[in-house]
Design goal:
InterPro entries: Knr4/Smi1-like_dom, Knr4/Smi1-like_sf. This is SMI1/KNR4 family protein. It comes from Anaerobutyricum hallii. The chain is of the alpha+beta class. The protein is built from four helices and eight strands, in the order H-H-E-E-E-H-E-E-E-E-H-E. The longest helix has 11 residues. The chain is globular, with a radius of gyration of 14 Å.
């Protein structure tokens, strides 16, 4: 996971992560917590995730967890899926859809299609998701 060249990363502290977790009343996955410190708001050049069911899904960038972010992950969490608070967005597809942790199903990684409020399972962990990204 560390060999990727993330661009546009913004500073984030453990205290920032704790504030987010306090707001959502959930502890985020450990592998995500360890990596987001280094790659907060980071983007990869032309990255995508591929599945048999959906095909290639563009990956725009990681969500900025800082409170002063224009599009804050906590605010999105509160409104996604009609406010169910089931999905925490960690990444943007770039078209209004998000990569999320399914907080009701062991933090599995899912694609949340905003327009139709539909969810597609992608993989079990953040590490699996990042390792599954293709650049190019």
């Amino acid at each position: 996971m560390n060999k990727r060249r993330w661009i546009g990363c913004k500073k984030l502290t453990k205290a920032d992560i704790l504030k987010v977790e306090d707001c959502i009343k959930t502890r985020l996955p450990e592998d995500y917590r360890n990596q987001i410190i280094k790659i907060n708001n980071g983007a990869l050049q032309r990255a995508y995730y591929s599945t048999k069911d959906i095909g290639e899904i563009a990956y725009s960038r990681n969500m900025d967890l800082s409170k002063n972010a224009t599009t804050n992950a906590v605010e999105l969490y509160k409104i996604l899926d009609g406010g169910s608070k089931s999905y925490f967005p960690f990444g943007s597809v770039g078209n209004g859809d998000y990569m999320c942790f399914d907080l009701k199903k062991n933090n599995r990684v899912v694609l949340y299609i905003n327009e139709i409020q539909k969810v597609y399972y992608l993989c079990d962990t953040f590490t699996q998701f990042i390792d599954g990204l293709t650049e190019g």
